[in-house]
Design goal:
153 residues, alpha/beta, Rossmann fold, 5 helices, 22% strand, globular
Length: 153
């Protein structure tokens, strides 16, 4: 990859944080990995860094089921904040929910680029980042797949 991304994982699963972060760093895919255990922590980070694009993530991997502020609540707040952010941030939902209602809800939110059912292995994230790197500049950043981890392996 020419330019490693700043990745943000918003997920309350600490084991997932550890394994993904360790794997991505060993593959050299990231400039920085931001980890938040709920949407509220991540939202405060975005607000606090709104004027500093270098600190903001390029990609957010968002879980839906979390305490304090869940993924849906985060997206609602992000949509309000987005016009003030001077950087394109691509958001992928990575969740254990295979509920068709969640998938349909995600499809109508233009800020969500993809809905991925866990587990998302580092190789899958690598593929997403490589695809994203290829599409930067050739799309508005809004594309939607319905991916499961099994689709990539």
């Amino acid at each position: 990859m020419n330019q490693p991304f700043i990745l943000c994982f918003i997920d309350d699963d600490e084991i997932y944080h550890y394994t993904v972060t360790r794997s991505l760093k060993s593959l050299g895919l990231t400039k920085k990995v931001l980890i938040f255990s709920d949407g509220e922590q991540a939202m405060w980070f975005l607000i606090d860094n709104i004027a500093n694009n270098e600190n903001l993530p390029d990609v957010i991997f968002l879980d839906l089921n979390m305490p304090v502020m869940n993924g849906w609540q985060f997206i609602e707040e992000y949509v309000k904040l987005k016009p003030k952010i001077g950087k394109v941030i691509t958001i992928y939902v990575i969740t254990s929910s295979s509920d068709p209602a969640d998938l349909e809800r995600a499809k109508v939110i233009s800020e969500i680029s993809d809905y991925i059912i866990k587990p998302a292995k580092p190789e899958m994230i690598k593929g997403i980042l490589e695809n994203l790197e290829r599409t930067i500049g050739s799309t508005d950043g809004n594309f939607f797949f319905n991916t499961t981890a099994d689709d990539v392996t």
